[in-house]
Every structure is written in structure tokens, then in C-alpha cells.
Amino acid sequence: MTNYSIKTISDNYKMTAFGVPFEDFNDWAGNAAKTAARKAEITENGKLAELLALADGQEYQINYVIGGKAWRGFGVMGEFEVEDAVVLDFLAGDYLVVPGTGADKDRLADEITGKVFGGMLQEITDYKYVGPGNATFVEAAENGDFYGEMCLRVKKVNG
User: How many domains does the chain have?
Assistant: First the structure.
């Protein structure tokens, strides 16, 4: 089983991000293309850099549910007013923290997400994912690879 830890976050927090809604959550190729296009757009027009400059510079890939639809975006920790960005609420509670490493910075967040939702959550029987969202960051590691962590809110299941 993949290693993970449980971290308790005592206060609600917010994240500010740019993203895209998904009409069909199971359209993996289409959703990946929409996500990549949005990331390219906010990188090229400077919106992502503007947001990173307002925060601590750490970028997150965020999955969330907005208006009953799956949504994926890129953003920062904190609440900021930036045109076309949304502010997302993350609730206090227990968070499953799943680390990962890899050589490709742009793919690592997706790899960790795939690992978590591709079977790991079913293997963890003492906690269940309760959302409404999750966030993954990736940063350079000392050995030239990259390190990432996904955090998602869970509730302890009575065993």
C-alpha cells in the first residue's frame, strides 16, 4: 500500500484559483485537454503569475465540486481578488496527505491524483473522502526530481 499520513487542520481555509468545469467527469482525454488549455491560457496571459505573486509562490492543482460539477484548476493558498478567479472553501478537519516523487514536474500532480482515486482510497478502510475538494502541490526536490503532496479531507470511519 502507498504511504500516507493524516494531518488535522484546525481552521477552515481558502484557496484562489483559475479553472474549468467538466461536463462529463469520465471524459478523461477531453478533461485533460481542457485543463491543459486553461493552464496554458493563464500562464501566457500572466494571470497565474499574478496570483502566485499575491500568495507565497506555491502553486496547487485543485479538484473541487462547483455547482454539482467537477472542476479542476490551478491556484494558491489564501483568498485574493483577481479577475476571473474563484475562491474555494476548504474545511477544517482531518486530511489524508499522500506524497509522491517523480522526474516530470508537469505530470506529478496528475500521477498522485490517479494513484489516490485509482484505488488507494478503496484500500484505506479507516477513513473516507468527504471533500468538497483536494489540492496537490509539486516542488523541486534536492536530488533533481520533484516532490508532491495531495491533501484531501477525510472522516474517520468507525471500525
Answer: 1
